[in-house]
Amino acid sequence: MTRIDFHTNVPDKIAYACRLVRKAYAARNRIVLMTDDMEQLADLDAALWRFSGVDFLPHVLCGDPLAPETPIVLACSDEAELPHSDLLVNLSRRTPAIFPRFQRVIEVVSSEETDAAAGRKRYVSYKQQEYQPTHFVANKS
């Protein structure tokens, strides 16, 4: 069964995702990042390129011919052909229909109210499907 972890109260979802991806990539995971739309996907793509001067995070957009060989794939649609199934990092406000094929899902939820409300709905939905999501509150003092 897919392991689902919620990371909530995140002030900047893109920057947070970059840190998560760096850690997951270092652990040799193959990662898919799901965004709401092309605009958020473009922001994420740019952030991954400039994230660190010492950490290279090799990534491509889904559909790229190199996607099967690239450890990090960016997508904004459930219909996208996704070559990996280790880790799905969901930055979108929807539950990706493809989530059960992944070993692990990390739901990144910002502190912004509409995003937090969407995150609560996803949490309840997972619970109703008999998943046992964990919850980590970012920036908790």
How would you summarize what this structure contains?
The protein has 141 residues and is an alpha/beta fold.
Write the layout of secondary structure elements.
Elements: E1 3-10, H1 13-26, E2 31-34, H2 38-50, E3 59-61, E4 72-75, E5 87-90, E6 104-110, H3 113-128, E7 134-137
Helix pairs in contact: 1-2
- Our count of helices gives 3
Strand order of the largest sheet: 3-4-2-5-6-1-7
User: Approximately what portion of the residues adopt beta-strand conformation?
Assistant: 15-25%
Structural class: alpha/beta
Helix amount: 25-40%
Give me the strand/helix succession.
Answer: EHEHEEEEHE
Gyration radius (Cα, Å) is 14 Å
**Any low-confidence stretches, pLDDT <50, length ≥5?**
none
Total beta strands? 7
Distance between the termini: 32 Å
Shape: globular
Mean pLDDT level: 94
How would you characterize the largest beta sheet? Answer: 7 strands, parallel
Characterization of the model:
The protein is α/β, with parallel strands linked by helices. 30% of the residues lie in helices and 24% in strands. It contains 3 helices and 7 strands, in the order βαβαββββαβ. Helix 1 packs across helix 2. It is globular and about 35 Å long. The model has no long low-confidence stretch (mean pLDDT 94).
